[in-house]
Task: structure prediction
Amino acid sequence: MKNRVLRVLPAMVMASAFAAPVSAEVDNRTYIAPAISYVGADDDRLADDGAGLQLGFGKAVSERWNMEFSLVGDVLDLADGDDEYEQAGVLIDGLFFFTRNPAFAPYAVIGAGALNTSFAGDSNNTNPMANIGVGFFRQLTAGGTQLRLDARFRIDEDDRSVPGGETHERFEDWLVNVGLAIPFGAVSEPEPEPAPEPVAETAAAPAPAPVVVDSDADGVPDGQDACGGTPAGARVDSKGCELDGDGDGIVDSKDECPATAAGIKVDTRGCEIPEVAVLHGVTFVSGSDELMPESQTVLDEVAASLLKHPDMVVEVAGYTDSTGSKAFNEKLSYQRAKAVSDYLVGKGVASDNLVVKGYGPANPVASNDTAEGRAKNRRVELRILSK
Result:
């Protein structure tokens, strides 16, 4: 079963690698990758950790994948005695890059090959091997030379007996490799565009008649239109801006109260802001000061209206029904008023323009004997203190 997996791994890597074309931003030059290795030997080898060398040849084959062919070798001294493992092999790897950032290009590696092991006079013991790991590249020079570091878990299907030990199905070693990736040749430059064919001089054509463009069809040419994109059918002045018949700062097409008197403070609909306004639609989670999501639409409009009048000071007053203790209701009503104030401040309203009060069950607007009446009494009001 393990041998079958080892035979399938290279095919999986190569199939994934050729699935996408090489990007124009990927350095697709062939490179040589010399490295030194620290080998953490499997305890079952009864050997000390050792060192090794690796020489690879690689190339980017897609935006995400590099393919590499490597020659590898290492020496591991037996922990007890003068014998040693001498190992040499070949390896085909696929490197999957999470990013090609020259400053830090992390990758995962998977590959397989064959490893020949010479030990205690046995010089012809070749077995399948596979490895998997992670690492990164970091570009060092403008020419493309890169530092390379990775850590790998290697499976060696060597099933021999170890002198002084037992027969094992395989060995599992850890390797840390550090080295360089040095590309061959210069970076390819894009081919220059061909020079345009010479054009024979011709007699100058008469200048075309000027074209008047009026993109929003409001009767004012774009070159003179100070308010481009006015709605179709809207009345505009000589500058192309919508008219505001009552001078309240809300253009006629959006003014729901088009005849407000001069000097009246209006909201975003162009209607007079009342001295006391109940914020219908502003509701809370039962028994708490957490605003329900549907409250945001109402509060966004309130914030926009207050921002139109930066000198206006208002009281945010919270009320509850008579259910529960007076102390609890007064605290809850204040917390709810504070939640509304905090939301308005978050939308840009100056905190100095908001006074927060909690009145609990005081000043009911309906009977607390019915569910409908109690619902009306649970409310937040805005009161104008100073215009």
